[in-house]
Amino acid sequence: VQLQASGGGLVQPGGSLRLSCEASRFHLDDYVIGWFRQAPGKEREGVSCIGRTGRTYYADSLLGRFTISRDNAKNTVYLQINSLKPEDTAIYYCAADANRFCSESWDFEAYRYLGQGTLVTVSS
């Protein structure tokens, strides 16, 4: 079982990125998917979560610029980030768990499957 985040890169302030979280050997629509990020020198923080029914959750401090979505046909969960700021620079991770709820605490390590991260750098 593998979970892989991708889509990161170097982007100028104000730009946009769409990150992808893809799974091999299991169907993501059966899982709660969380997105997390870790900025240089900071602790990992929760960004967004999508439940099995498609209900979405966002960290209070990040409302408005992030959109999480599912494409079950592609077995992929996306994180759209708009109006990127330098402080969005971080490694972004996705995680999957069939038995969690998005309403639970933002705890990356508590998820059953943890993906490799993708680096987002926001700089001019």
Brief summary of the model shown:
The chain is an all-beta fold.
Structure commentary:
By secondary structure, the chain is mainly beta. It contains no helices and 11 strands. The strands form 2 sheets. Strands 2, 4, 5, 6, 9, 10 and 11 form a 7-stranded mixed β-sheet that branches. β4 and β5 form a beta hairpin. The protein is globular. The mean pLDDT is 94.
Features:
globular; 7-stranded mixed β-sheet; 11 strands; 4-stranded antiparallel β-sheet
Write the layout of secondary structure elements.
Blueprint: E1 2-6, E2 9-11, E3 17-24, E4 32-38, E5 45-50, E6 56-58, E7 66-71, E8 76-81, E9 90-97, E10 113-114, E11 118-122
Parallel strand pairs: 2-11
Antiparallel strand pairs: 1-3, 3-8, 4-5, 4-9, 5-6, 7-8, 9-10, 9-11
Can you write the helix and strand succession as a string?
EEEEEEEEEEE
Shape: globular
Tell me the helix content. under 10%
Instruction: Catalogue the unreliable spans.
Output: none
- Termini separation comes to 37 Å
Number of helices: 0
Outline the biggest β-sheet.
7 strands, mixed
The average pLDDT score comes to: 94
Rounded to an integer in angstroms, the radius of gyration calculated over CA atoms is: 13 Å
What is the number of beta strands? Answer: 11
Helix/strand/pairing category: mainly beta
Strand % is over 45%
